[in-house]
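Q: What structure does this chain adopt?
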Amino acid sequence: MKDVIAIYPGSFDPLTNGHLDLIERGSKIFDQLIVAILRNPEKEPLFSVEERFEMLQSMISHQSNVRVDSFDGLMVEYAVRVGATAVLRGIRAISDYEYELQMALMNRKLEPRLEAVFMMPAEAYSYLSSRLVREIATLGGSVKDLVPPMVEQKLREKLPRADQRRGHGTLKQGK
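A:
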């Protein structure tokens, strides 16, 4: 029996507890799991690929069958290059399913040997996305339970609090 190699592609900008949940659960299903950071020149990421790589690497170092890599171009070409036969994707809502189904069918057309494996997030992370985390952090809100402590610290370093950027202190209510 051959080892099943899967990739979990994404931007991971920033890494969330939802991502870590899927990585942990995916590592129990596949012999090898490659967390593959997409280098997308069309997007302006908050963190560089190197910063995201470092954060991911430190969070998965205890998992012997998981490694971090990065790629650009077509995901199916990357999957073939690394010998992957499965792509792990998380689905939070019906809108995710519609998008992921379309991508999975196109990927199957491009590379019929590549299977899509969809996982539902743990209930605690069913609403969580990197986009929402960036928005909350940018506006000065707490992301404490949404991301690992290291990512929370890096977000604080990268993004000054919204009230400081505007030059205002905290709001005071009158009596």
